[in-house]
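DM from R.C. (forwarded with permission)

"hey, sorry to bug you on a friday — could you get me a structure for this? deadline for the figure draft is monday and I only need the backbone to look sensible"
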Amino acid sequence: MSILDSRDRARARQHPRVGRSPLRLLLGVAVLSRLFLFCGDAVAQEGCVTEKCHAKLLKAATVHPVAEPCEGCHESVTTPHPKKGAKTFKLTQDPPDLCNTCHSVADKKEVHFPVAQGMCTTCHNPHASDEPKLLAQPMKKLCGTCHADHIDFKVVHGPVSAGACTACHTPHTSDKPKLLLKEGEELCVGCHLEMPEALKKKNVHPALAGGCTSCHNPHGSDHPKMLADEGEAVCFICHGEVGEVVKNAPVAHPAVMSGCGSCHTPHASDNDRLLLNPEKETCLTCHDGILTKAMKVFHGPINNGKCTPCHNPHGGQYPKLLAKEFPTDQYVPYTDTAFAFCFTCHKRDLLQFPETSFATNFRDGERNLHYLHVNNKQKGRSCRLCHNIHGSAGAKLIADSVTFGQWNLPLRFVKTETGGGCSPGCHKPKYYDRKSPGKKPETSKPGTKAE
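My reply, with the result:
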């Protein structure tokens, strides 16, 4: 044994860790190096999201596909990371260029403000979200952040209520106004499937030429049907003259007080004036006692299915909504302006002349019996003392009976080819004949209807 070996053994006994073989030392270095490499691999595999850093960043239902690894969008600018008071990473590009690397936005006329400003993260979470499309909030709440005046109503449009703003709008760009998916009524009929068929009817409301929003608020309203205003006030925006009548008329039509929809359909109809039903049928819906099954002869306008030649349907100056003045009393001192209502259609000549051969068929020879009954300056008789205004079972709208005070007096009118007669409670039987004055009917007696 050499002196050198004995010294080495002595040193080893005094210092056990010194003097170990170089092989063991190299082995230790290798193990430590492997350990460091393993830890480095573990950190690299975990990335930026660990229990200590950004732990909740990617914990959501929808994760942005490029969020792992982070280097897809971020790059280091300094070390170490993290560094107090300094940002050690930056985006590889500024938005929207960074987002446009993957997401192209169509070049269209209308651009949503956040898109135009490159504010993608105003609406989207770039990492993860529990909402579809990585939205930063539920859609209704998100859109309401800027458009608060579009969501708070008593009556809310279905898509708005459901938070489905993109059912009508595209969120980025559009060639349509208001970022709409489709233009005008084409968008609305996507849900309101009954409307295309309805709009094929003969008469379409002209307001529809301006689109559905002429009358409706597309998001919601404080009024039924999402109307832009209360009831008939919407209609009066265009139909101002009707509004003035309704507002100022001394006699109001109760149906109007219930809303224009009582008689009219707002979109389209096969009937004139957008009526729900033909005019006469519309009126008889409420006034069902006006015409009876016993009536065989009807007033001319009613024969034509019309009521409005005599009645103002919205409001009037005169009782019964009549278009012109008509006396309410049974006896009226006659003047040349009396019965203006009747003489809108009928010629006043029929009671102007005491004698006539042409002005009326109600004459005995040439003695004018209309003149006799009506043209009396003290006690002229009203037309309705003898005539039923709407219809009658007999000719010439002659009434079966007439109310006189507390009595209901039968008229017992009969008609012949050249005259007729009556036997009411107010006078004894009277007959008239245009060819033979005073001639009694040969085939009929008062109280028997002649053919």
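R.C.: lifesaver. Residues 1-45, 444-451 have pLDDT under 50 and may be disordered.
me: no worries. DSSP finds 15 helices and 23 strands in the chain.
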